[in-house]
């Protein structure tokens, strides 16, 4: 269960707050895009980054000369947000239109992963997450490539989760209006694969297991 801190306390729409750690993990694992906040001399900046989870940490990677990575590796406090959009809620009144979504905010500071073998492990874990079995087929990262890559991790010890899936919330006075109301679902579909020209004769790999209900049919 997620612990509640002053930063992670959900104050707006508290009925949407979720304390189940597994829900947090699912949101991160499905999203894989984290928006990371930093404060620079010119003001606040939010940058989207690939972000993945291994056990109870999230990881990001980038070039050694990246301004974001250089700032974060110093351990400055930040937050990382993940959002999955699940659909529009269409009400009988304009005011009550809303959305279904799942969101998570992780608070804390990043630290650098310095051990070469550990960097290699978590980077390969990410590849396996998006394309199972692929690390058994491709050329793995060289020592030079690993040295040029900065990997940072942040613990999932402080986070908040909100889930909105409550359907239409029309006012009682509007229920008899002859207007269609309901949910317009929004789904991300993964695939089919699009090979480069030189690979069109090769057997197509099957990555559907990583995406279950999101894989195209």
Keywords:
217 residues; alpha+beta; Pnp Oxidase, Chain A; seven-stranded antiparallel sheet; four-stranded antiparallel sheet; 11 strands; 17% helix; 34% strand; globular
What oligomeric state do the depicted chains represent?
Answer: single chain
How many helical elements? 4
Helix-strand string:
EHEEEEHEEEHHEEE
CATH superfamily: Electron Transport, Fmn-binding Protein, Chain A
Class per helix and strand makeup: alpha+beta
* Total DSSP E strands: 11
Major sheet description? 7 strands, antiparallel
**Strand-residue fraction?**
25-35%
The helix content, as a percent range, equals 10-25%
CATH class: Mainly Beta
- Unreliable runs, pLDDT <50, ≥5 residues? none
CATH topology: Pnp Oxidase, Chain A
**How many structural domains?**
1
Q: What is the residue-averaged pLDDT?
A: 93
Question: Can you give a write-up of this model?
Answer:
- This protein is α+β, with helices and mostly antiparallel strands and 217 residues long.
- It has a single domain, classed as Pnp Oxidase, Chain A (Roll).
- Helices cover 17% and strands 34% of the residues.
- It has helices spanning 21-31, 67-72, 116-130, 143-147; strands spanning 17-18, 33-40, 43-50, 52-54, 57-63, 77-90, 98-109, 111-112, 149-155, 159-164, 182-185.
- The strands form 2 sheets. Strands 1, 2, 3, 6, 7, 10 and 11 form a 7-stranded antiparallel β-sheet that branches. The protein has a 4-stranded antiparallel β-sheet with strand order 4-5-9-8.
- Strand 2 (33-40) and strand 3 (43-50) form a beta hairpin.
């Amino acid at each position: 269960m997620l612990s509640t801190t002053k930063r992670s306390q959900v104050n707006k729409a508290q009925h949407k707050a979720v304390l189940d750690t597994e829900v947090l993990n699912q949101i991160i694992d499905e999203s894989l895009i984290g928006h990371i906040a930093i404060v620079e001399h010119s003001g606040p900046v939010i940058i989207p980054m690939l972000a993945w989870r291994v056990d109870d940490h999230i990881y990001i990677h980038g070039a050694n000369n990246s301004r974001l990575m250089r700032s974060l590796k110093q351990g400055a406090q930040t937050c990382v947000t993940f959002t999955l959009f699940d659909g529009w809620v269409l009400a009988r009144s304009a005011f009550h239109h809303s959305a279904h979504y799942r969101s998570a905010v992780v608070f804390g500071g990043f630290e650098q992963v310095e051990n070469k073998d550990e960097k290699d492990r978590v980077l390969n874990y990410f590849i396996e997450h998006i394309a199972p079995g692929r690390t058994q087929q491709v050329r793995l990262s060289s020592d030079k490539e690993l040295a040029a890559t900065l990997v940072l991790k942040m613990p999932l010890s402080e986070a908040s989760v909100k889930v909105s899936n409550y359907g239409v919330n029309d006012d009682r006075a509007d229920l008899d209006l002859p207007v269609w109301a309901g949910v317009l679902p929004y789904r991300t579909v993964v695939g089919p694969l699009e090979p480069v020209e030189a690979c069109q004769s090769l057997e197509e790999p099957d990555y559907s297991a990583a995406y279950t209900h999101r894989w195209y049919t």
